[in-house]
Design brief:
It is built from eleven helices and ten strands. By secondary structure, the chain is α/β, with parallel strands linked by helices. It has two domains: 199 residues, 2-enoyl-CoA Hydratase, Chain A, domain 1, CATH 3.90.226; 59 residues. The strands form two sheets. The chain has a six-stranded mixed sheet, with helices on both faces. A four-stranded mixed sheet has the order 4-6-8-9. α4 packs across α5 and α9 runs antiparallel to α10. 38% of the residues are buried. The structure holds coenzyme A. The site of coenzyme A has 15 residues, from α2 and β6.
Length: 286
């Protein structure tokens, strides 16, 4: 569990490799991992680097210390930006949204947000953009923007509206009230909430499950899921058919044929109940 990768600066985002999992921690615990421009730039660099790093089969985004992230940094991201030229502000804002939304939503490897503690405002973006999210039951979430006179911009409201119901999303946006991890799971902001004491262990088990699947199929499925929502039924049908054909051509382990062979000929597994044995097809482990 060491081997931090070299990243520019390298202090504000920590990376640990663990059996195919890259644990990526926002690392300003004394500031509750509030995201300042330097952290955002470093995070973008880390995600770029991990995309082709063979030690990483899956990314877990989390926070160091007792916070996931207290959102955007009120001092360095907001107040100090007031004196910037519009172009400079746009650039700072774009870097933040690029890693939190664009990169994570379309990342070529599976992603899990592990919400270990405080999670406010801008931190919702990465939670929603990761493929899956697990929270500590004790974690505290809040759309606190209204509490200091702004709105959840930076596409935070777009993230919220994409997973929460209008009733729940509007309630917490307008009241600024906090809610815990269990409530976040109830509202489907996260998949599941577990006691903090087993959060990492639970996340690790979920990560190992994803890593045990055919990687090309997982990548194609997550990309397709993001895209079909905005398509008509006919466009979606055509797109998915093309994606399926593409997968048959590009999957290095020929999972489709191997899966059918192990079920129909070897009778060694049941696809309804689990994945085929990948090492039999010569695939790599993690
Ligand atoms: N931006 C900048 N600094 C922040 C911050 C943020 N979003 N969140 C926390 N910090 C800083 C505090 O200013 C403080 O700095 P200092 O030690 O130099 O005084 C330090 O982090 C610790 O914060 P503190 O409030 O003492 O910690 P806490 O554990 O008592 O409370 C929070 C944690 C998250 C409830 C509280 O810090 C908070 O409300 N933060 C703002 C959350 C927010 O509204 N974010 C949305 C932004 S859109």
């Amino acid at each position: 569990m060491n081997d931090p990768i070299a990243t520019p600066g390298g202090k504000l985002v920590l990376v640990e490799f663990d059996d195919g999992i890259a644990w990526v921690s926002l690392n300003r615990p004394d500031k509750r991992n509030a995201m300042n421009p330097a952290l955002n730039a470093e995070m973008l660099g880390v995600l770029d680097a991990l995309e082709t790093d063979e030690r990483c089969g899956l990314v877990v985004v989390t926070g160091a210390g007792d916070a996931y992230s207290a959102g955007m940094d009120l001092k360095e991201f907001f107040r100090e930006s007031d004196r910037l030229a519009p172009e400079a502000w746009l650039q700072i804002s774009r870097v933040a949204q690029t890693w939190q939304i664009d990169r994570l939503r379309h990342y070529p490897k599976p992603t899990i947000a592990m919400v270990n503690g405080w999670c406010f405002g801008g931190a919702f973006n990465s939670v929603v953009s990761c493929d899956l999210a697990i929270a500590a039951e004790e974690a505290v979430f809040g759309l606190s923007e209204v509490n200091w006179g702004i709105i959840p911009a930076g596409n935070v409201l777009k993230s919220v509206a994409s997973v929460m119901s209008a009733r729940d999303g509007l309630y917490y946006t307008l009241t600024g009230e906090t809610f815990d991890g269990s409530r976040a799971a109830e509202m489907k902001l996260v998949n599941i909430a577990v006691p903090h004491a087993i959060l990492r262990e639970h996340t690790r088990a979920l990560a190992r499950t994803l890593l045990s699947k055919n990687r090309a199929a997982v990548r194609a499925a997550k990309h397709a899921f993001r895209r079909v929502g905005a398509m008509s039924w006919d466009d979606s049908d055509d797109y998915l058919a093309a994606k399926l054909d593409q997968l048959r051509l590009t999957d290095p382990e020929g999972g489709r044929n191997e899966g059918m062979r192990q079920f129909l000929d070897d009778k060694t597994y049941r696809p309804g109940l689990g994945g085929y044995q990948r090492d039999k097809s010569g695939s790599s482990g993690a």
